[in-house]
Amino acid sequence: MAQPYDRVFNFSAGPCCLPVEVLEEARDDLLSYKGLGLSVMEMSHRSKPFEAIVQNAEADLRALLGVPEGYKVLFLQGGASLQFTMIPMSFLPAGGSADYVLTGAWGKKAIEGAKRIGTVNTIYDAKPSNYDHAPKLASLNYTDGAAYVHFTSNETIQGVDFFEDPAGDRDYVCDASSNILSRPMDVSQYAMLYAGAQKNMGPAGVVVVIVREEFLARAPESTHPMLDYRLQVENGSLYNTPPCWSIYVCGLVYKWLLRTGGLAERAKINERKAKVLYDAIEASGGFFKPHAKPENRSWMNVTFTLPSDDLTAAFLAEAKGHGMLELKGHRSVGGCRASVYNAFPEDGCRALADFMAAFAAKNG
Ligand SMILES: Cc1ncc(COP(=O)(O)O)c(C=O)c1O
Questions:
Q1: Which of 132, 159, 180, 202 is deepest in the core (most CB within 10 A)?
Q2: Which protein residues touch ligand 1 with a CB less than 6 Å away?
Q3: Which ligand 1 atom is nearest residue 82's CA?
Q4: What per-residue confidence (pLDDT) applies to 94?
Q5: CA 27 / ligand 1 centre spacing (Å)
Q6: Beta carbons of 319 and 9 less than 8 angstroms apart
Q7: Where are the beta strands (DSSP E) in the chain?
Q8: Ligand 1 center to residue 177 CA distance, Å?
Q9: pTM tops 0.85
């Protein structure tokens, strides 16, 4: 089915496709935002209109996720990757330790960041089965006195999702970069959540941090200014010049999610979209092999392999010819990865599933 503006089906893991309605709105605002005679890109971040953009984005994000009282919301820079350093700098005290649950490539990077600051207990490592699953959080052997527990709710490269919120009184810190806003979450169960915008929220350049005030109070007073969560809170995410355009587009995406039924509706759509692809994998009689175990198969990143490198190359080339781009898997997993975040159209999942069936029939 033809896509608006002849757009391709973009299966990129991020940055990735944005809702067409949001792109249209941004386009319409580009030369003169709300008739003010200038674009958001040209506007002072200290101006009233921009302050309203940040405040509305925060309010809409709070509404979408049901962020409870007692949590701060920040729009920061440095990507999710800087959080790998900022978190231990602020919350891993000298002489203490933190628990990390390792289910894939991004969790590994989080651990590398934390190890430069202090003691890390890797309390679970899914390496023996090549990171194809996530453990049940309640089954883990936590370290007494650990400052926090870090996990990656969806491993983007492996396509592995926990599909659960933590429960209990430990301080869970979660990298939700690749599944935030894909379904409802119980924010009250987390000490902190963070997510780079460039998958489910907007353009690259901003990372959203949602942090419980009591947890925040543990951060030291004397961190470097730009790395100081408290200072960022005091300044309402405007300590320095923020990524204005990215925050503005995130705000448009939040409004799009709210008016299309919020996260409960989004979850239904995402589950349906992913099912189309996993069903196509299963229906291929072993031609396509899923990477993740059934209970952890991500709705956002569908990872699978083909029988050989030559067939993978042919599959990718033919898919491209059909307007389906960015299906190559990450080199650590190989094969293919179809990233189908919130804004990815259902038609695209059906088109890929049909193409997979035809390719398997021809080459299987
Ligand atoms: C789960 C996860 N965490 C962290 C990152 C790193 O994000 P950034 O490039 O914004 O630093 C990514 C990027 O793809 C990711 O998927």
A1: 159
A2: 14, 79-81, 106, 152, 156, 175, 177-178, 196
A3: 11
A4: 93
A5: 27
A6: no
A7: 9-10, 71-76, 97-102, 119-125, 149-152, 154-155, 160-161, 172-175, 192-196, 207-212, 289-290, 301-305, 324-325, 336-339
A8: 6
A9: yes
DSSP summary character for residue 136? -
How would DSSP label each residue in 159-221?
TEE--S---SSS-EEEE-TTTTTSS---GGG-SEEEEESTTTTSSTT-EEEEEEHHHHTTS-T
| Measured distance CA(169)–CA(189) in Å, rounded | 8
Residue with tokens 């200038």: 38
Q: Please tell me the distance from the alpha carbon of residue 40 to that of residue 51, in angstroms, as a whole number.
A: 11
Confidence class of residue 64 from pLDDT cuts 50, 70 and 90?
very high
What confidence tier does 117 reach under pLDDT thresholds 50, 70, 90?
very high
Residue pair 155/130 in contact (Cβ under 8 Å)? The answer is no
Ligand 1 centroid–CA 278 distance in Å is 24
**Please, what is the Cα angle at 193 between 23 and 277, to 5 degrees?**
55
Of the options 3.30.70.1450, 3.40.640.10, 1.10.3720.10, 3.90.1150.10, the CATH number for the domain spanning 24-259: 3.40.640.10
For 35, the 3-state DSSP assignment is helix
- If one looks up domain 262-363 in CATH, what number appears? 3.90.1150.10
pLDDT at position 1, please? 65
* CA atoms within a 13 Å half-sphere pointing along the CA-CB vector of 90: 25
